[in-house]
């Protein structure tokens, strides 16, 4: 079944809920460390073994940098300065917006569609990032995994979001680039869009009569 078929058969959407990383803004650890490691092979090894996405995800789950950074520096003392840069220069891993999504957010806001977000994002990193992105001023509420110490795709974060946003899951459209998150939300009754690019999202939103 296509997303267009889903949109035609589903109830009207009362609110749209976005993921943040790789949906609204780009996120890539390579964007940070390519500025600090000149050798491409060394850069690949560092991102595969030292500051990996898997290691990073514990911050999304709520672990503080004051614990994780010293632990990693003790494990890889030769990279202590680069691991410190991960904490200090994290915003360099967010090089800009995903093309086209911000314009869709603005169009939804212009039609007074309630907007929310659920993001796997470290609490300390969110505190750094949020003031830099005024687009989130259009959002009624944002559930940040690192603050709540619960992550997608686990059901409790979706239950918390539904309670805070004030809409039934079946009346909300959840947009995420991660298939596991989409599948989890759909199993809990949310309407979903598996994000690939803004053009496909635009078509889905049009089909649903939201823009």
Automatic annotation (TrEMBL):
The keyword Hydrolase applies. Keywords: Hydrolase. It comes from Pelagerythrobacter marensis. The keyword Hydrolase applies. It holds the Pfam family Hydrolase. GO terms for molecular function: hydrolase activity. It comes from the Bacteria. This is Hydrolase, haloacid dehalogenase-like family protein. InterPro entries: HAD-like_sf, HAD-SF_hydro_IA, HAD_sf. SUPFAM superfamilies: HAD-like (SSF56784).
